[in-house]
């Protein structure tokens, strides 16, 4: 199993550009989520999904869109990038919905810089 | 914010010593989890403790949970240089399917 795969590893965008961060898992996990990590802020939840076709907002959803058309994939879309979205983005998945005591498996992150 | 608060923010010890990190949270939880992050990498799950458990062990790790004080601690015994990493607590709240992370403790173990 590859686990949780994120692409790209690094990305530089100009303000106003759009892009999609890809996340795929091959573990048949029900739950998937996106976090951003900023210095001194820990990890903050952006969006999460409890199954195909179901998504919900986390702590900091503004400026980001998600969809979950398959169990395996959970892309994160930045519609109009802003410098405040410069961060490291992590995708994570779990076998069951998180309240069923299932730990998260993380990808290795995408480092995004918006100039 | 529902974030947990971690203490200390940074900890520097010698190899062989024990390291203790603390986490406090705000409302009733379903479970509390500890994760480790090596520099430049994703987080790795270490241990999960349910709200009805008080203590849990995994190798050199010992986690305690005090729901009356809304706090947890992670003890790493006989630390090694390879334990150098950031450690995060994360809580699953009874309302909703969200795992919320604290700000982390940066542990440095000197050989």
Helix content of chain A: under 10%
**Protein chains sharing the most extensive interface:** A-B, 28 and 27 residues
Mean pLDDT of chain B: 92
Number of strands of chain A: 11
- Nearest-angstrom radius of gyration of chain B? 13 Å
The coarse silhouette of chain B is globular
Which residues of chain A sit in consecutive blocks of at least 5 with pLDDT less than 50? none
Oligomer: heterodimer
Overall pLDDT confidence of chain A: 94
Q: Strand percentage of chain B, roughly?
A: over 45%
Overall 3D geometry of chain A? globular
Distance between the termini of chain A: 36 Å
N-end to C-end Cα span of chain B: 38 Å
For the largest beta-sheet of chain A, the strand count, sense and barrel status come to:
7 strands, mixed
Q: Which structural class is indicated by helix and strand composition of chain A?
A: mainly beta
Please write the string of helix (H) and strand (E) elements of chain B: EEEEEEEEEEE
Helix/strand-derived category of chain B reads mainly beta
Helix content range of chain B: under 10%
Reading the helices and strands of chain A in chain order gives EEEEEEEEEEE
Report the radius of gyration of chain A as a whole number of Å: 13 Å
Largest beta-sheet details of chain B: 6 strands, mixed
Describe the structure concisely for a colleague.
Chain A is 0% helix and 50% strand. Chain A has 115 residues and is mainly beta. The model of chain A has no long low-confidence stretch (mean pLDDT 94).
Write a structural description.
The complex is a heterodimer of chains A (115) and B (111). Chain A is built from no helices and eleven strands. Chain A is mainly β and 115 residues long. In chain A, strands 2, 4, 5, 6, 9, 10 and 11 form a seven-stranded mixed sheet that branches. A four-stranded antiparallel sheet of chain A has the order 1-3-8-7, with no helix packed on it. In chain A, a hairpin with a 3-residue loop joins β4 (31-38) and β5 (42-51). The N and C termini of chain A lie far apart (36 Å). The model of chain A has no long low-confidence stretch (mean pLDDT 94). Chain B is mainly β and 111 residues long. Helix content of chain B is 0%, strand content 59%. Chain B has no helices and eleven strands. In chain B, strands 2, 4, 5, 9, 10 and 11 form a six-stranded mixed sheet that branches. A five-stranded antiparallel sheet of chain B has the order 1-3-8-7-6, with no helix packed on it. The mean pLDDT of chain B is 92. The chains are: A mainly beta (115), B mainly beta (111). Chain A binds chain B through residues 4, 31, 33, 35, 40-45, 48, 50, 56, 58-59, 90, 92, 97-99, 101, 103-109, and chain B through 1-3, 30-31, 33, 35, 40-45, 48, 50, 88, 90, 92, 94, 97-104.
